[in-house]
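wait is this the right file?? whatever heres the structure
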């Protein structure tokens, strides 16, 4: 049985581009569970307190069964290695050749802000589950104002949002004995796995578009997404540094 690392040890964000605007890294304090920091960040922005982020300790059925309530999305944190980048290049070339179907209802945004893949991943998870998760305040306003924007326009809007940037920095420093540096980049990356209109999507702000991984449903999403996470882990058998966080309805 493989037990995943929890976010209090490996929760960081990364950037694949050199850009003018940076956020702080989003590490969690050793004294505070990282998923709590994610929940605090999104609750402060306006995500319903009836929903929360929680660590996934393993992908076996008995460990997935420990999650509270229904699961709306998974966040997957992994190291970007040469093997991963090669796999992604080949996969995108195949999609470019064969094509794919992406629902127009999928909310997708690029990551153009340094160290913001954690924030982009969180937004992908929450803004694609508004049919389940009520939004208020800044998060609701962000969703409404960017609804008709392109992925690039949404990225620019995020970069210019002082409210979200300030909330990000506050969460990044929650419980830290030493504040994270804005220009400190690490090589871990967040993606989100979501269910939209009967399909399982991989949401990665480094890419040009969401990736459709085939059929799923509310009833099968967690197991389907867990299977996909296992496939991701097999891309580089030498790596063990993975973390998965679930967006669940609180007990």
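ok assuming it is, sequence goes like this
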């Amino acid at each position: 049985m493989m037990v995943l690392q929890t976010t209090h040890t490996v929760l960081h964000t990364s950037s694949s581009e050199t850009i003018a605007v940076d956020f702080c890294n989003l590490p969690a304090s050793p004294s505070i569970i990282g998923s709590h920091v994610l929940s605090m960040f999104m609750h402060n922005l306006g995500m319903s307190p009836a929903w929360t982020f929680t660590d996934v300790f393993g992908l076996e059925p008995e460990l997935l069964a420990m999650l509270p309530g229904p699961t709306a999305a998974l966040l997957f944190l992994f190291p970007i290695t040469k093997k991963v980048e090669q796999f992604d290049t080949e996969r995108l070339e195949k999609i470019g050749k064969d094509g794919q179907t992406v629902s127009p209802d999928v909310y997708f945004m690029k990551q153009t802000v340094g160290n913001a893949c954690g924030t982009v991943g969180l937004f992908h998870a929450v803004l694609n589950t508004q049919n389940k998760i009520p939004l208020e305040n800044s998060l609701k306003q962000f969703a409404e104002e960017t609804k008709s924007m392109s992925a690039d326009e949404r990225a620019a809007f995020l970069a210019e949002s002082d409210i979200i940037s300030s909330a990000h920095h506050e969460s990044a420093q929650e419980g830290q004995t030493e504040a994270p540096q804005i220009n400190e980049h690490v090589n871990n990356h967040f993606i989100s796995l979501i269910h939209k209109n009967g399909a399982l999507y991989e949401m990665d702000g480094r890419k040009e578009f969401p990736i459709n991984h085939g059929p799923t449903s509310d009833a099968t999403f967690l197991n389907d997404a867990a299977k996909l996470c296992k496939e991701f882990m097999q891309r580089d058998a030498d790596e063990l540094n993975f973390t998965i966080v679930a967006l669940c309805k609180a007990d």
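The chain has a mean pLDDT of 82. so i think its the right one actually
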